[in-house]
Amino acid sequence: MNMMTWLTPRLTYLLGFIAVCALLGMAAYLQAHGVNPCPLCMLQRMTVALLGVMFFFGIVINPTSFASRLVALLSFLIALTGALLAGRQVWLQHYPPQNGADCGASLEYMMQVLPLDQVLKKVLIGGTECSQIGWEFLGVSLAGWSLLWFALFAGMSLFQLFRSR
Length: 165
Fold this sequence. Notes:
By secondary structure, this protein is an all-alpha fold. The protein is built from eight helices and two strands; from the N terminus they run αααααααββα. Strands 1-2 form a two-stranded antiparallel ribbon. α3 packs antiparallel against α4 (66-94).
């Protein structure tokens, strides 16, 4: 049986949606057990949630329509954004900032008191909180796993985009 026969567009998005739900559930579990997210982690979490919304749209729309291609393209761009955020955190974990800068405030607080461009700049510069490795599995940090999942989601989205042609 051909993979394209049984792996329909809707099933592909459903599998992605299930993975997103599992990732968000794991993040909530880890947070409940003391692994608190830094602002860069929170942006990655929001990106995963946004991917979940896009994958849900991919499940419910007509797989042969223009909207299907749009969902695939937007999903790819969101996954790419998440990969960039996770990649930045992996970089910070391997090469922590020397200036002692600290993310300090939560993302929620920064969003309330600073303009968006300053919030993004402060979060992407990172600091000691963002460069710490709070959890590892198989020797890979949480940011490393996020990068891997974002890469998989980007590949899945490209597969969906080119399948629809």
